[in-house]
Design goal:
- The complex is a heterodimer.
- By secondary structure, chain A is mainly α.
- Chain A has a single domain, classed as Transmembrane di-heme cytochromes, Chain C (Fumarate Reductase Cytochrome B subunit, Up-down Bundle), CATH 1.20.950.20.
- In chain A, helix 5 crosses helix 6, helix 5 packs across helix 8 and helix 8 packs antiparallel against helix 9.
- The N and C termini of chain A lie far apart (67 Å).
- By secondary structure, chain B is an alpha/beta fold.
- Chain B has a 4-stranded parallel sheet with strand order 2-1-3-4.
- Chain B is globular and about 75 Å long.
- Chain B starts with 18 loop residues before the first helix and ends in an 8-residue tail after the last helix.
- The chains are: A mainly alpha, B alpha/beta.
- Chains A and B meet through helix 2, helix 4, helix 7, helix 8 and helix 10 of A and helix 4, helix 6, helix 17 and helix 20 of B.
């Protein structure tokens, strides 16, 4: 393994991770700078149950009409994000537990998941380019982030077998892109996962207080 | 190379009409003179808008501004887009982005440094503000259907109301919004009903119920202290639909309720919800809460009104910084309790027509009453049938968000109402019941425009019609 690849897999990743953590911390402070108002009404439901239901929305495609009517879209979402998770895990396995990728079946599983995400990424890019609604709201960041992820998935599929002796190109690309991601993500739409708990929590807490969420709870009480 | 055709836009291009504002200033109307109601003044309105935006953002709003990933899933939850599928400007995401891009440019990080990269943008002139007015007032009924369909939990309804509130501070509002706000600020009710009119109508309805029930024991008490119920209404009931007060009086009488209506603080509607003006919202809600305090009522009961219920039961206490100390409920809940307790008896055979139920957005999506009206209707109607979709997935009557008072947006609203018309038609019902006066007018517009063989009724009307009289002897 070259010293460049070693640097890419270790020091560079750690430095970029630290940078991302600092930016995220500042971002969280920025979010908490905005005030919230206390609800002064008697509750008709349970805020915690509402917030919990809202946060779990991600694993309940039947909860929203928008995903219930589009199971294929929801499946794409699941595959895409599993691919993200697998590709991230890969950046830790290769430098810190390379033995895991010594098993061919394990490598194949990771490649299949990331490869599927790569395919979904292409579908999503096609949708973003051809759907007039998405075109009307998409920013350069929306396109760039998606293309970047697709390329990253591609490099991950090639790099996951972790065979630097067969050529370091895929590994350098994979870890180089990962480092770039870590630095870029906090400023792009990709950091939506940082906001998800907030939007979902505040919406769920408010509607939970009113008894509107979870939807079945009050109906059951009244039955 | 041929230039690509620009997507059609149904966004209304309505100029800012300030004639009534000018008249209000000329007449030295108290709400304007005292600065409670803002009027349009040429000048640095963009700067003021940006200052207000930066100063008023709450945390739930800030995260709704930043969290959208432009997935477009909200599009098909919106009745405006469903009826204008070729027009991206009718989608919730596009409408919200018109506010979001300003936030990105002036408050958020990346948009301040590289605005083009995240499509951040600013406002240049009052014309831009007027265009924003037409988007947030004219192309969205703030029904929150998209909020429930956003995977990220972005509250576009909240965001639209926030933008409306900023524009209201600058007087850049539809004329109807200005007029109704003025009336509510100055008379305490949004239809400028005078105290004499109010008291005379109550007396008239009391006499009607006395005649119907054949007893002088019926009363519509006003300002009676220490009652169980303080009953608050929509001014529309005084002006256009006093029978709804009679229905309530009849039910309260037969149930043996201890109730009163206040002489002041009787309007449970709240135009602050629609205009985004929290100060107006606080003022109107406080009138009701203080009336209950003054009369030592044990409970506030709100007549059938969607936004009135949401404002008085939920938002008003927060707007007014008023700690809730007594139950505040919809009259439908009160009636359900009377039915449960056997205080009134009903015969569903007296309402034999097929009835469907329209869920008010403000009650179903921003409140908590979904099953209660259904439980009442199943007991008072022989043929109750659901509309689809229903409950929290129901479509707006298209008159929500104060749109009934904004004539300039009516043609677009009625185009968008095709979704509601199709929903209504599919039920085969001859009566559509709703627990909202706003929805009554909105649905009547839809029925008339799309020539549907239906009539709009409210829950109390059906309960009143099904009452087995008398069930209780005084």
């Amino acid at each position: 393994m070259s010293s460049l690849l070693r640097f890419f897999e270790n020091e560079l990743q750690i430095a970029c991770l630290a940078f991302m953590a600092v930016v995220y911390a500042v971002r969280l402070l920025w979010i908490f700078r905005f005030k919230t108002r206390r609800d002064r009404t008697f509750p008709a439901g349970d805020e915690r149950a509402g917030a919990g239901y809202s946060l779990m929305n991600i694993v309940m495609p039947g909860a929203m009409e928008s995903t219930r009517k589009r199971p294929f879209f929801y499946a794409q979402f699941v595959v895409f994000h599993l691919g993200v998770a697998a590709a991230i895990v890969g950046t830790f396995i290769i430098p810190y537990s390379p033995g895991l990728f010594g098993r061919a079946a394990f490598v194949r599983l990771f490649q299949a998941v990331v490869g599927a995400a790569f395919a979904v990424g292409l579908i999503r890019l096609g949708r973003r380019l051809t759907n007039p609604v998405l075109r009307s709201v998409s920013s350069p960041d929306d396109y760039f982030s998606l293309v970047l992820l697709i390329v990253w998935f591609g490099t991950a599929v090639l790099a996951l077998p972790n065979r630097p002796e067969r050529g370091e190109g895929p590994l350098l690309a994979y870890f180089g892109l990962t480092a770039f991601f870590l630095a870029y993500v906090p400023f792009s739409k990709i950091c939506h996962y940082l906001y998800y708990p907030f939007t979902r929590y505040y919406l769920g807490r408010s509607l939970g207080h009113r008894g509107a969420l979870p939807p079945a709870r009050k109906a059951k009480e009244l039955a | 190379m041929t230039r690509r055709r620009k997507a059609p836009s149904a966004v209304v291009d309505s100029p800012l009409d300030t004639r009534t504002q000018a008249k209000a200033k000329e007449d030295r109307r108290p709400s304007v003179v005292e600065g409670r109601l803002k009027t349009y003044e040429p000048g640095n309105n963009v700067g003021r808008f940006l200052d207000l935006l930066a100063g008023r953002i709450s945390r739930p709003l800030a995260v709704s501004m930043t969290a959208c990933v432009h997935c477009g899933l909200c599009a098909e939850s919106c009745h405006y887009f469903l009826t204008h599928p070729d027009d991206p400007t009718m989608t919730p995401v596009w409408k919200a982005d018109q506010v979001r891009k300003i936030f990105k440019r002036h408050v958020d990080w990346a948009g301040r440094i590289v605005p083009w990269w995240v499509k951040a943008g600013t406002l240049e002139s009052d014309e831009d503000l007027n265009r924003l007015k037409n988007i947030v007032f004219g192309t969205c009924s703030a029904c929150r259907r998209c909020t429930y369909n956003c995977p990220m939990g972005v509250d576009t309804g909240l965001l639209v109301r926030f933008a409306r509130g900023l524009l209201t501070e600058l007087g850049i509002v539809p004329e109807g919004v200005f007029n109704v706000s003025r009336d509510q600020w100055e008379t305490g009710n949004q239809m400028a009903v005078s105290e004499d009119d109010y008291l005379e109508t109550l007396a008239w309805m009391r006499d009607e119920v006395r005649t119907e029930l054949g007893t002088d024991a019926v009363d519509i008490p006003v300002d009676k202290p220490d009652c169980d119920i303080l009953y608050t209404i929509n001014p529309r009931e005084i002006k256009f639909d006093p029978r709804s007060i009679a229905h309530a009086a009849k039910i309260f009488h037969l149930a043996g309720a201890s109730w009163t209506m206040p002489k002041w603080g009787w309007d449970q509607t709240n135009f602050g919800l629609f205009s985004g003006d929290d100060r107006l919202g606080a003022y109107v809600a406080r009138n009701v809460y203080e009336a209950a305090d003054r009369l030592r009522a044990k409970r506030i009961v709100i007549s059938e009104c969607g936004h009135g219920y949401r404002s008085t039961r939920w938002e008003g206490y927060t707007w007014a910084d008023f700690e809730q100390t007594r139950p505040t409920e919809s009259v439908v809940v009160t009636v359900k309790r009377y039915l449960d307790e056997g205080r009134i008896a009903v015969d569903p055979a007296r309402n034999p027509q097929p009835v469907t139920f329209h869920d008010s957005c403000n009650i179903a999506r921003s409140g908590d009453l979904i099953e209660e009206p259904r439980q009442v209707l199943r007991r008072v109607c022989a043929d109750f049938r659901e509309m689809h979709p229903n409950r929290r997935e129901n479509f707006c009557c298209t008159g929500g968000g104060g749109l009934l008072s904004m004539a300039e947006y009516r043609p677009l609203r009625l185009e968008a109402a095709k979704i509601k018309a199709d929903q209504l038609r599919a039920t085969g019902a001859t009566l559509v019941c709703t627990m909202c006066h706003n929805c009554v007018d909105g649905l009547n517009d839809v029925i008339k425009h799309y020539k549907l063989p239906m009539k709009v009724v409210q829950v109390l009307e059906l309960v009143s019609g099904a009452l087995a009289v008398p069930v209780r002897k005084d």
